[in-house]
Amino acid sequence: xxxxxxxTKNQSLVFNALARADGPLSAYTILDQLRNDGFRAPLQVxxxxxxxxxxxxxxRLESINAFVACAHPHTHSHGHGMxxxxxxxxxxxxxxxxxxxxTGRVREWTNGNGFxxxxxxxxxxxxxxxCSTA
Amino acid sequence: xxxxxxxTKNQSLVFNALARADGPLSAYTILDQLRNDGFRAPLQVxxxxxxxxxxxxxxRLESINAFVACAHPHTHSHGHGMxxxxxxxxxxxxxxxxxxxxTGRVREWTNGNGFxxxxxxxxxxxxxxxCSTA
DNA sequence: TTGACAAATGTAATAACATCACATATCGAA
DNA sequence: TTCGATATGTGATGTTATTACATTTGTCAA
Lengths: 134, 134
Ligand SMILES: [Zn+2]
Ligand SMILES: [Zn+2]
Ligand SMILES: [Zn+2]
Ligand SMILES: [Zn+2]
What we know:
Bound molecules: zinc ion
Pfam family, one (chains A, B): FUR
Cofactor (chains A, B): Zn(2+)
Oligomer: homodimer
Binding site for Zn(2+) (chains A, B): 88, 91, 128, 131
GO molecular function, one term (chains A, B): zinc ion binding
Family (chains A, B): Belongs to the Fur family.
């Protein structure tokens, strides 16, 4: 299966919940939103989330235990450059960006130290432009 | 109070547990290690951890829900440069480093986007040099 | 010294996040 | 059609973190 194709029923429901949200959602928030669609247990959500993470359609924000739909599904190639997230602690907005210099510096460190990197998390918490002017 | 001074009893116990560990510990692991010292409830650990984080003596690893004693308490100035952690998924070893170029690039992004950064997490998961040769 | 306030501690209960174990169903290829 | 891989349903359990409230300890000024 390729990334943007033929999701199963549960995967579609979970992805759509994230896609229509204006910010990150926790697994249990998703569960509550999908009760009327037949969801009864956390595992139904977590299994779908795992697949969607595999497909690169969503991201997990480790610092807030939440999940967000990928903001740039067509433009950035997950798996190559590292992705950074700026998370507003006021409104929950998440901005996603990729920086080749950061990616390069991390690679230099890992190569220099014989560290075989598998996954890298870069999360910036703070207050977004909108919320600081308001 | 300054950072490396006069911890309270509980703060000392928690800090020493982290300092003598060879890797990160979860709050509940610390709790279990301190049962004989009178610890009975998670909050006793979490409260001490919060203070030690304030003092910059320990770090929280968001991607693994664990805490680690600062590896460079005298050399790096927490609060200025951002700190990155390389976490071995085999042995648990954590290497801590700080990179001015990464710090600068993140600052460029946040300044350019009007984002007021408060805390930044950079965590690299993978396998350390020792574990990949073994 | 004592009264008052801040900081630290003790404890139980609860909330929030995530996985295990096992049964059943669905789908596609041999 | 039969087999294996994938997906699903469900309850129980495991793990991480916080709320609420009572008590103790330390500090300092009146
Ligand atoms: Zn993305
Ligand atoms: Zn905001
Ligand atoms: Zn440190
Ligand atoms: Zn290792």
